[in-house]
Amino acid sequence: MMSLAAPILALAGFAALALSMHKHHRDLFGGPPSRWRALALRSLGWMLLGLSCAACILESGWAVGPVLWLGVLTGAALMAVLTLTYRPWSVPGRDYMTSRGSSSSARDKPRAVGASARPVAATCNASSPTTGPRRPASEGLCRKLDRRRRATSLAEGR
Which residues of 94-118 are buried (b: 16+ CB within 10 A; e: fewer)? Predict the structure, then answer.
């Protein structure tokens, strides 16, 4: 039977790697990591993944250990992804992490998955005679609206 050391080390490693990213660090701590904190979290994450590999090899030997480790990585990565993307505000200890030196604010409240930090206008750069120039929402949306405008102008014979 497999010990719990390898999966716990792998999950901790993936959590550290995720926290080295701006988005996940901002979701949990309210701001992006400093350059040195991101480097430390990245190094810690890779070290923990290496230790989980060593735990699998020590437990099952060189013949089966790396295969077992790949399975452990799959499960740990799935757990980390589901935790950080589905419910980032439910991570244990988050209240303690965000309450140090700050009052309750909007960053402590859960946001919708995929919601950006700042609102973006849902229009393109094309200017209209009535409203003037507009700000872009996203490249995909702008391309779609441009295609629709071209198709409409071609159909009208302009």
Answer: eeeebeeeeeeeebeeeeeeeeeee
